[in-house]
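Worked problem 6 (solution included).
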Amino acid sequence: MELPDFIRLGQQEPALACLIIGGYAVAAHGHTRATFDVDFLVRQADHDLWFTRLTAAGLILFGETKVFAQFSQPQGGDGLDLMFVDDTTFARMWQASEERDFGADRARVPCLDHLLALKLHALKQVRAHRTSKDADDVEMLARRNHLNLRDPRYEQLFLKYGTREIYETFLRLLRNP
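Solution. The predicted structure is:
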């Protein structure tokens, strides 16, 4: 299974709303990079429905926390990671999300600000296996989308979801006036 197959799984009746996050969302906002899994942001309330649907499709759960679940395919191929959020967060992100083409399929991705917020939150967690990838994503999203990080809107975003140190690091890195 690949991204279009996962999209179609979510669209089966009853449809389970999801936002594509991670590498595919980063690409949808202008920075293509290698990714080895598919990442969906979904409602926590749909947890059991997602698990039932994914296991029925042959995926195997290999890691789970309160907010994440990771599935693999027994025959290899892209894995699927689910990030669970509450209804209020999902509704806010869904409202601002953007529909994009993924081959012959269409799906929604977070708006740029929400994607940056997800990346900044991940950077704030300081997970060694993710830091360089997430930092590169933030840098390239800012460059490709010509963001002025000195704009108070972006300073607030960085401080709410990241830290002052992360914000100042990207100011230096991007040398915004």
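Discussion: The chain has a mean pLDDT of 93.
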